Each structure stands twice: as C-alpha cells, then as structure tokens.
Amino acid sequence: MAADLRNAAAHSSVPCPPEASLKAATGDKILRDVFLGFIRIHVLHHAAEEPIFGQEMMEELERHGYEVSPGTIYPLLHSLEAAGLLRSRQELVDGRNRKYYRTTRAGNALLARLRSQVVELVHEVVPGRDSARPKALRRRTAD
Asked: Which of 23, 56, 77, 90 has the smallest C-beta neighbourhood within 10 Å, fewest atoms?
C-alpha cells in the first residue's frame, strides 16, 4: 500500500509542494513502523506455534499482503533474538544451514500481552465491532 502511494506520487503530473512531500514521507514512515509492528507480532505468533525460518515467514507474510524482503525479515529475526524474545538453532537442510526460531518465555509473555492489546485495539478502531466487545472494555472506554 505504501509503495502504491509512493509510486502514484512519483508518477503524478501535479507538482507537489515541499510540505506535502514532507507529510507524505512522514506518513510513509509511520505506515512502515506500524506494519513492522504487525510483522513482529506475526513472527512471534508463528514462532510460538512451531519452529519458523526466514524464507517461510516471508511467504507467510506475503499471503497476508505484506511484501517483506530478506533485508527486512532477517534483521527483524536477529533483533527479536537479541532482545531475548526468540531463540534459534541451526539445522542442516539440503546441504545448507537453516536457522529455526522459537519464542522464549519472554517472547511468549510479550505475545500474550500483545494479543490482548490487539483485541482491544480492533474493538476500538474497527467500525461495528463494539457489540462484540467485552462489557468491561465498553464501560472503560465509555467513561
């Protein structure tokens, strides 16, 4: 989506004032940051379910509409491991080393917290979802 917006802006014949370009660039950065957050949650979710590896996660994320390159997924996996949220092990597959990742206890704890926050966020920002929202959440946000 962000790439589509950039491509449309780049091929537009309408001159773009500098402040509009700055706003678009800022919007693109925020969109990228949000999507990277979604991708991190997605990675933690799958690593909690079973061992994962980079190429597999790129394919899984693509099924959900994310275009993730090796230059994004591998540093992301390494940073989650460095943060203590994932652990890895290498295995020889077809004559090549493949690094598999699983969540750690800290990764599972963070994922549990993120899941509840995602549920609350969806109920807050997706129209028509309030009726499915737990009563305690409806009361808290009604105040």
From this structure: 90
**What is the SS3 assignment for 56-97?**
HHHHHHHHCCCCCCHHHHHHHHHHHHHCCCEEEEEEEECCEE
**Contact (CB, 8 A) for 115 and 131:** no
- Tell me the pLDDT tens digit for each residue of 63-85: 999 999 999 999 999 999 999 99
Q: Which domains can be identified in the chain, with CATH numbers?
A: 2-142 (1.10.10.10)
Rounded CA-CA distance 113/92 in Å is: 34
Residue with more model confidence, 119 or 128: 119
Question: 103 has which bridge partners?
Answer: 86
C-beta separation of 116 from 71 below 8 A:
no
